[in-house]
Amino acid sequence: MAELGKNLIGLEWSSQGKAVLKAVNPKGLAELEGEFYTSTETEVNRAMEKAHNAWLAYRKVDGKSKAAFLRAIADEIEALGDTLIERVMQESGLPQARITGERGRTCGQLRLFAQLVEEGSWTEAIIDTAVPDRQPAPKPDIRRMLTAIGPVVVFTASNFPLAFSTAGGDTASALAAGCPVVVKAHESHLGTNALIAGAIRKAAADAGMPDGVFSALNGEGYRTGQLLVEHPQTKAVAFTGSLRGGKALFDLAAKRPEPIPVFAEMGSVNPVVFLPGYLSQNTEKAAQALAGSVNLGVGQFCTNPGLVFVLDHIGLPDFLAALKTAFAGSAPGTMLNPGIHRNFEFRKMGLLKETAVVTEFEWAGDADETQLQARQAFASVTGQDFIQNPHLHEEIFGPFTLVVRCADPQELANAVTALSGQLTASIWGETGELNGHTGLIDVLQSKVGRLIFNGMPTGVEVCHAMQHGGPYPATTDSRFTSVGTTAVKRFARPVAYQDCPDEILPAELKKDNPLGIWRTLDGALSKNKG
Amino acid sequence: MAELGKNLIGLEWSSQGKAVLKAVNPKGLAELEGEFYTSTETEVNRAMEKAHNAWLAYRKVDGKSKAAFLRAIADEIEALGDTLIERVMQESGLPQARITGERGRTCGQLRLFAQLVEEGSWTEAIIDTAVPDRQPAPKPDIRRMLTAIGPVVVFTASNFPLAFSTAGGDTASALAAGCPVVVKAHESHLGTNALIAGAIRKAAADAGMPDGVFSALNGEGYRTGQLLVEHPQTKAVAFTGSLRGGKALFDLAAKRPEPIPVFAEMGSVNPVVFLPGYLSQNTEKAAQALAGSVNLGVGQFCTNPGLVFVLDHIGLPDFLAALKTAFAGSAPGTMLNPGIHRNFEFRKMGLLKETAVVTEFEWAGDADETQLQARQAFASVTGQDFIQNPHLHEEIFGPFTLVVRCADPQELANAVTALSGQLTASIWGETGELNGHTGLIDVLQSKVGRLIFNGMPTGVEVCHAMQHGGPYPATTDSRFTSVGTTAVKRFARPVAYQDCPDEILPAELKKDNPLGIWRTLDGALSKNKG
Q1: Less crowded by CB within 10 Å, the N or C end of chain B?
Q2: What is the pLDDT of residues B10-27, one digit of tens each?
Q3: Confidence band, pLDDT 50/70/90 cuts, at residue B431
């Protein structure tokens, strides 16, 4: 790994800066191999200029070639083999099975986008043919399709070192759309980033993609991110992380001379509602499902269920007891980095000390601080106190959940209505019981991007129908998703061609439909010529 | 017109305020009938609260009922007959034929959106069916569709008192999406707004739509707009007007505790390129087409061609001479309001005084100031001076255009490359000639929402394929359009249902596909059950 510490600027490795960063193993906090040069302003500018120049060519690269490039990235990532898996484990503290699974998801995602752009209908071609003899004026021929918006800056997530990172969903969907990508590497995953960047570099070179189609820069704190977001050639930003971080980028982008879209996925508390009929019939099952989801990956998922709504009815003590047993059966796990661990313990402890909050369970056994092990916990609060204290609605990132004990269905509805925007909500009920709660389901739907029935929110399927996004503060733009094939739409904008000669039209819009894609032709979907 | 001066808040007319506005006839500046009460903060809040409550019901109204409502609005507008036409003429100074045509466009637009939502495929249903036995984990059933984003605030345009106004494209597309609308009436069209608001009110009441699905408020200056954009129940903003106005709303929306999308269409200079072969063969035709487009509607279109790029070649003097003749044949027309007239004359005069600018033509005959008549003009500048003076790239709203005389094709390419985002660009060339300029066409495409071949940008077709929008500063979000059926996408966001019982699913997503709409089913478009 001779290039381990350098920034990747197009096809070139660069280390002009003097400052270096080191990666740390969360298990024991030892420094890992590699000195990572932070990028200088000159390097940031060169990456963005290269990205702009690459865009001029890359936006016109046909779907088949982009598909081959995306597949080559997946192949190169797999070719890294155990070198990659080991480095990710060292940098994240996550277990091997999880990392192997996440690599599969990352490569699967790249190949899914490859399939999408190879097929080509994602460009939403719409054709209205001319009516030359229309009165009072002729109707022109207008043909519209989606085209690449320009260079995209990607900020990577701490909690998915592969799938939401250097070659994650944001990068894959931007490259699929025809947009060059400049990644700001996560400070916790510097080596992982370098390995993946090298894989993308090789794929780009082998596929003959324009120099600058991909860059990856190291940087400490806010400065590199600010330079990237403020660069005039940056045309969109994707981010996965905290509300504070995402909002800061959103504000920077809004203040630019030319404002640009920021797609920030900032997490949420993912409320889970257990209807009373279900809970009394399935006490154990509900408790185990909830505990499993809260503690999965040491609670470090943006879809972690951080709020649970139940009625304070006769079966509740049994459920809380079962939940305690389930929580006690989960061993403390290592968190991703010292900041996340510190923040979790601090915020959890603060909450548990509040008068209105009842500590139902907190891990009392061993938890090794030097291994950043988190003490999982859950607490409860009345519906009334929950409604009156909006700070109880906020995310505590880690293995924690808050059970809201509602006095009656109306209080439960009020508590749910008081929530802000969420990535997901889940509702558990017997078949007939769900049908009796359509009003509550409507309220939940109005708050979320994804509504789950009798299931937990963790485990975000990468597919066509996935919506991973929701009203603010879950994301900065609820009209888009960061997971699933429609994520590509974030980085494309429509262009209409009026009375354009057929030989000049892009293949997607030509009369003969040479790509054989679905098009809306005079108002009706078809693959016809026209 | 007993209710002429009041604010419409849902189904109720309201006049709590003390301040009144008067409408003025641009032809002679006489005050028109009616005292219009400006809305108070209480009235603004009531309109937004009603809109929110209406949204809870209206977002679930089926497509057929929404279609009937939209068609009823069109019918009620037509039923206003000459009363409407006369008031619009009095308030805008526009001729009868134009207003009658614009009414046709407005009603046609409402009916086109009715057709869209009645058919139903606009909701982009995507279904990935379950694979219960998938390894290592079962694949859930996920079904996604677009749903209404929430109450939309619409700021109306000065230059289209009907088609981009109270019942214009923004209102029609928001109502089609399932979003209640609160209109801020334009100060120049207070009576027109009241008449149209009354028509929508009657249509809403007759169709049994929820109270609050539509409101229209009067207000002076910035204050009412600010209250509307900052109201917590406002979920999106649509605006057509100046860069200054649109950017101010964008900034307000970005600073909210919950930022919301603003779709501001802020106009552009709409560059027109005449390639030399075409120009030398069609000197007269080109001059007449350009003069016709520049002077159409007294130059008051957001697609007005404000910049013309030509090579400084042997045929140019003939073209400029023909253009002078064509401009001289157009009589000065009345502008929309005193502010627009004052601004046009001031900015035009400022430009014509600049050293680098050659005044090629300015109307020297009579022009009645009391009738707000504009003196049409055009000027020229060298390509080099144009590139070096970015302020020459800015829009002068009215009957004016600037011819950029480029020394050679490279300078022309550089001049076009220096442009910021535009709604449109047009290129005129002989068939073979266009094929020889694909590089230039690529540059133009990268700047615009619509690229026109051998045609002028004025005359925006309302159809499925229209893209009326473009990179900033043409609009605040190039990924959307304000004209054409896809305008509905601005006001909808996707929601995914995971493992939802069929009886609870919206009709669009039910297994049997009862609406018979196009859906992406396991990756392929079809109308199949699934």
Answers
A1: N
A2: 999 999 999 999 999 999
A3: confident
Mutate to test the interface with B, among A463, A482, A490, A511 (most CBs of B within 10 A): A463
CB-nearest to A477 from B144, B147, B261 is B261
B204 and B141 in a single domain? The answer is yes
Enumerate the β-bridge partners of residue B373: B334
- Would the pLDDT of A119 be above 60? yes
The whole model's pTM is what? 0.97
Chain A positions touching B486 (Cβ under 8 A) are 126, 494
Phi, psi (deg, nearest 5) at residue B311? -85, 140
Catalytic residue (one of B107, B179, B302, B406)? B302
Domain presence at residue B203: yes
Provide the domain limits for residue B112: 42-266+480-489
Q: Domain check: are A295 and A376 in the same one?
A: yes
Assigned domain for A517 exists: no
pLDDT in tens, A182-199: 999 999 999 999 999 999
B63-79 helix and B81-92 helix, angle to the nearest 10 degrees: 80
Taking the CA of residue A70 and the nearest CA in chain B, the distance in Å comes to: 19
Say if residue B188 is in the same domain as residue B312. Answer: no
Residues A390-407 have pLDDT tens digits of 999 999 999 999 999 999
Together in a domain, A366 and A414 = yes
Task: Compute the distance between CA of residue B142 and CA of residue A530 in angstroms, rounded to an integer.
Answer: 34
pLDDT in tens, A207-217: 999 999 999 99
Residue pair A469/A480 in contact by the 8 Å Cβ criterion:
yes
Residue A511 lies in a domain: no
A265 flagged as catalytic? yes
* Chain B residues close to A450, C-beta within 8 Å: 142, 495-498
- Judge whether residue B136 has pLDDT over 70: yes
Establish if A498 belongs to a structural domain.
no
The complex's ipTM? 0.97
Residue B472's Cα: distance from chain center in Å?
14
- As given in the structure block, the two tokens for residue B512 are 């049997």
Scanning the structure block, which residue is given the tokens 């990205």? A51
Q: What CA–CA distance (Å, rounded) separates A346 from A340?
A: 10
Residue A463 a catalytic site member = no
CATH assignment at residue B303 = 3.40.309.10
Same domain, B233 and B200: yes
